[in-house]
TrEMBL record:
<dbReference type="Pfam" id="PF00701">
    <property type="entry name" value="DHDPS"/>
</dbReference>
<keyword id="KW-0456">Lyase</keyword>
<protein>
    <submittedName>
        <fullName>Dihydrodipicolinate synthase</fullName>
        <ecNumber>4.2.1.52</ecNumber>
    </submittedName>
</protein>
<comment type="similarity">
    <text>Belongs to the DapA family.</text>
</comment>
<dbReference type="GO" id="GO:0008840">
    <property type="term" value="F:4-hydroxy-tetrahydrodipicolinate synthase activity"/>
</dbReference>
<dbReference type="InterPro" id="IPR013785">
    <property type="entry name" value="Aldolase_TIM"/>
</dbReference>
<dbReference type="InterPro" id="IPR002220">
    <property type="entry name" value="DapA-like"/>
</dbReference>
Amino acid sequence: MLTEKEKVAVARTCVEEVAGRAPVVAHIGEISTRATIRLGKQVETLGVDAVSVITPWFVPLTQAELISHYTAIADALTVPVFLYNIPARTGNTIEPHTARVLASHPNIIALKTAQAAMTA
């Protein structure tokens, strides 16, 4: 629930405090592709090692739309991108096939997934 300015300040503080002793991954996922890229461009100048990007929320997206979203972000940034799949919070799921397609992008390096365990 931080503003864009606050998110940049948190990332800056982390990079400064860590001072190269550990990698810093900043979260930049926003509700739109444009806003995510805008935040990512600000954060990458701070010296983060990578960024994580949650799927957009509120509006249901097709898998093709998720591929377009993540591809545009990975194309726009110079730092590596982690996909972040948390469908219980966003309403959008990165399906296995979509993850495979996105894994072929040279700037997409990882997938973090947070899903509830299935019970019988």
